[in-house]
Design goal:
By secondary structure, the chain is α+β, with helices and mostly antiparallel strands. It has three domains: 34 residues; 131 residues, 2,3-Dihydroxybiphenyl 1,2-Dioxygenase, domain 1 (Roll); 147 residues, 2,3-Dihydroxybiphenyl 1,2-Dioxygenase, domain 1, CATH 3.10.180.10. Helix content is 21%, strand content 35%. It is built from seven helices and 18 strands. Strands 1, 2, 3, 4, 14, 15, 16, 17 and 18 form a nine-stranded mixed beta sheet that branches. The longest helix is centred in the N-terminal third of the chain and has 21 residues. The N terminus is likely disordered.
Length: 347
């Protein structure tokens, strides 16, 4: 095809400008192999008000196993979490191959989860626990007198090809944190959830977060952090309304994965649009605080790239954790475009 000199020059300017932009941001030019900031999702952290009560709940009701239990204080932890004068008890727990980290702030104490919280509020986050038998799991929760967040287990309808046959139920832990049990029919979900199991609660498939705009969140999680999109679904109808306990719920759902670990799932409410934003004054000791822990391939480089795109960074810089007491040597706490906390860590 013939191209005039003028058009060719304009195109060259665009290419050069694009390359300069990529170089300034420290990101790869188109066509080059990108290096993900995030290697894996290590764990999902939850702030709790009474550690002994929470440990009992997660072990006796949901079959988690305690891995470690430490109490820490000092400047390093204050800077890591952006909270002065803290003393915290941190318990790592595991279910299958996945982990959660429970943190009780002995000082200073934070605020409770708002009693009027709804599933479309921007601070909503949960973990999806896979079960081998939904009916048995629901009866186990009923016997333990858990607080319902859904009206009961819901089977997602056949007209929705990406979600058809999935069964799910929302409930709450003793602090009011939303949790989900999830059952995949054959052909859906990770193949490991369909392998022979003699256990009822198998592991954590993903953590879900409410986002204001999926495309904005993708620019951060996919284009900056390096997650890949694993699936999408358009969910609405009476089953979704009763699952989320939000009348008229219509969600755009996007699943993302790192190289390993649980996924991250975006929940964008197309309707209703009255979900409240993440509080600007939220702190790590507030019970709405979750922090998804991500293993970074190169934390200094990650910090540089995050600053280049104006990420909200809570820690004043990369913090060295004394003796690796929390399971990693260096950490950096940041917030995503909606305010959800992410703890980048490196051994």
């Amino acid at each position: 095809m013939h191209m005039s000199r003028e058009r060719g020059s304009s195109r060259a300017v665009v290419v050069v400008t694009g390359l300069l932009l990529w170089l300034i941001l420290g990101l790869p030019a188109r066509g080059q192999q990108s290096r993900s900031i995030v290697q894996s999702v290590d764990a999902v952290g939850i702030t709790v008000s009474d550690m002994d009560r929470s440990v009992e709940f997660y072990t006796k009701v949901l079959s988690f196993e305690k891995v470690s239990d430490v109490e820490v204080a000092g400047d390093e932890y204050e800077h890591l979490e952006g909270l002065f004068g803290l003393r915290m008890r941190v318990v790592h727990m595991r279910l299958g191959n996945e982990a959660i980290v429970l943190t009780e702030y002995l000082a200073p104490r934070g605020r409770a989860v708002p009693e009027d919280s709804r599933s479309n509020d921007r601070w909503f986050q949960h973990i999806a626990i896979i079960v081998s038998d939904m009916d048995r799991a629901y009866q186990r929760l009923r016997q333990s007198k858990v607080q319902h967040a859904s009206s009961g287990p819901q089977r997602l309808p056949d007209w929705n090809p990406n979600a058809a046959g999935i069964r799910a139920f929302y409930f709450k832990d003793p602090d009011g944190h939303a949790l989900e049990i999830l059952w995949f029919p054959p052909g859906k979900g990770d193949p490991k959830w369909h392998q022979g199991h003699d256990k009822l609660f198998l592991g954590i498939d993903h953590t879900a977060i409410v986002v204001a705009d999926t495309d904005t969140s993708l620019k951060f999680y996919r284009d900056v952090l390096g997650f890949r999109v694993a699936g999408e679904s358009d969910n609405y109808g009476t089953e979704q309304e009763h699952l989320n306990n939000v009348f008229g719920a219509h969600l755009r759902i996007t699943s993302l994965r790192a190289a390993s670990g649980p996924g991250v799932e975006f929940l964008q409410y197309l309707a209703p649009r009255d979900g409240r934003r993440y509080p600007d004054d939220a702190r790590a000791n507030d019970l709405i605080h979750w922090q998804t822990q991500l293993v970074a391939s190169d934390l200094p480089s990650a910090a540089k790239q995050l600053r280049a795109v104006n990420t909200a960074i809570v820690s004043p810089g990369i913090v060295a954790v004394p003796d690796g007491a929390l399971g990693f040597r260096n950490g950096l706490l940041v917030r995503d475009p909606d305010g959800h906390a992410l703890l980048l860590e490196q051994e």
